[in-house]
Each structure stands twice: as structure tokens, then as C-alpha cells.
Amino acid sequence: MGSRSDLTDAQWERLEPLLPVSNGRCGRWRDHRQVVNGVLYRIRTGVQWRDLPERYGPWKTVHERHRRWSADGTWEMLLRRVQAGADAAGEIDWDVSVDSTIVRAHHHAAGARHAPPPALKRGFAKAVRSDRIRAELIDRLAEVVREVRRSAARAAASPPRST
């Protein structure tokens, strides 16, 4: 049984071709999808590495892959490539609007439909679904990159350890 933080099949299909391949020197890598889902779960929930559910494999494997990919810039590269693909497809609007105005919604707005109306054509609904898949994948990768950057900043700010 998967977790809410696990990648969907559609998200995985977009991400898998971008992932590094094993160089063969260190043996066969554990399934990337299982490990990436373990990293996403840990970042979403904030659990300790040792407390990762068993479905993600050995916690040491997930931690080591996350640490290695953080150090060599793999997470940053994945985010850039997925964003570039979305940008090339015209799926990213880079305009930013900042406004401090607050508009309260009516209490009936809480039950609004989340799915597009059935009258929409299939092609449009498929394009909207594809955009949402890529946007969610970008959000998840951005969350991992933010965590990597926070961790690096904490390490840089901490006093050096002497042995």
C-alpha cells in the first residue's frame, strides 16, 4: 500500500528517464522509485531516517542515496530538467503577483468541485491532467531541493567538530 507522498505512475514516467544510472562499480542499486518515495515520505512527514516504513527498503539505503544525490547536485538537476520540460511545453507561467489583500471565500465555497466539468472535451481534460502531473512533480522535487538547501545551510552554520 502506497503513501500519499508516493509518486504516481504518471509522475514516475516523467522522472525515471532523468535519474542517474548505476556505474556498475558499486553493484546494483535498489529500485530508484522505492528510494525516491522514501525520501519524499521522510520530507513530508519529518520522521527520523530510522523510522521510515519498511516498504521503502532499508533506511540506510534511502538516507545514503539522498545524501549522495544532495552532495552531487542530482536533486537540483532533476528539478531544473523537469521545470525546463514544463517551460518548453508552455506549462509554467513565470509571472509572479504579490498582493497582501485577503479575500475570504463564502462558506459554501468549501464544497466546490475539484474535477473539470464533464462537458469538457477529452483532449482538454487530458492536457489539464498532464499539466497537473508535471506541476505536482515539480512541487515535490522543489520540496526535496529546499530541504537539501536548509540542511546545507545548517551544516555551514554549525561550528566545526574536532576529533
TrEMBL record:
<dbReference type="InterPro" id="IPR052909">
    <property type="entry name" value="Transposase_6_like"/>
</dbReference>
<dbReference type="Pfam" id="PF13340">
    <property type="entry name" value="DUF4096"/>
</dbReference>
<protein>
    <submittedName>
        <fullName>Transposase</fullName>
    </submittedName>
</protein>
<feature type="domain" description="Insertion element IS402-like">
    <location>
        <begin position="7"/>
        <end position="78"/>
    </location>
</feature>
<dbReference type="InterPro" id="IPR025161">
    <property type="entry name" value="IS402-like_dom"/>
</dbReference>
